[in-house]
Design goal:
About 0% of the residues lie in helices and about 40% in strands. It has about 375 residues and is mostly beta strands. It has one domain: 7 Propeller (Methylamine Dehydrogenase, Chain H).
Amino acid sequence: MKGKRRVADSAAGVWHCSHGHVPGQVLAVGQGDVGQLGLGEEVLERTRAALVRLPAPVVQVEAGGMHTVCLTENGEVYTFGCNDEGGLGRDTTEEGSETTPGRVALPKPTVQVSAGDSHTAALARDGTVFIWGSFRDNSGVIGLLEAWEKSVAPKQLHTTEAIVKISSARLLVPQAVRIKGSGRLKFQDVFCGAYFTFALTSEGRVYCFGLSNYHQLGTQSPVSVFMPQVTAGFQGSAVSWVSFSGGQHHSLCLDSTGQVYSLGRAEYGRLGLGVGAREQVCPAAVPELSRATVVACGASVSYAITSDGCALSWGMGTNMQLGTGEEDDAWSPVQMRGKQLDGHAVLAVSSGGQHTMLLIKDQS
């Protein structure tokens, strides 16, 4: 492994998709020292996106902290990467079996998956959710459904209502999120960062909660938001927001015209605002990114997919997640290139702790 490698926690878990459920092929780029690239025991890193062999076309790919989850068009789930906390949901005692895709035995066909640092979730067609793996803190395993216990195989998450979307965050005991003085609001979407959440109402109001130590939630002061609120950065906004993504300490926002905005911490170029950019309290438009359909964040990296299927990346380059072939940081968006991307349109992107996954299809 490279001596100057910088490791960051994953902000994975949100399905950054522009294509509905169009099947495609999976590409991997970045660090793969625990098999998270799915390219076998011998491949520890890729500077350019490489093809991952799967038994069926894939409609969703999610990069967790050090593992990856793929959903095929027939509703099957495949995983690869680190299985120390049970995040793969399958037996990996055979030498090297964690470094290539293996199927997870689930009782029902899956329609959506999500992944966190060391856990995975699958949403079935009937609205039930299955989860496996673990959460951790500084003291070790926290657990998913049972405190201090990791789940090495899928377990059903029991809820009172059918679930329509999953986005990985700490569960333990699922609870309804209450918004003071607002009654029962209807939300049309929810988006998770590493330590914070965005929720979008059917009227287009943006509610935020969680860590905002670098103003990544649009707060005027660097304080945590413990109850959902419309923060200063989004109050009175004339912009019609459609999508969000969160990294470790920064956020990306997408409006209905295709313009990308960023806010929060600026180091390593993760905001895409050019060399010397400073911390942003309010969403700032990323130059020359006005026709995007998808935004996505890793811990210290950012991505956008344009309407013509091009993928752009910026931020920390050390782990080679940017797919530029270099390890330099990128302070402005650069197009991801490579042999496997030639003649293909990018459908979706998901970034983990040190690796990034792409879903592509033929350009025709």
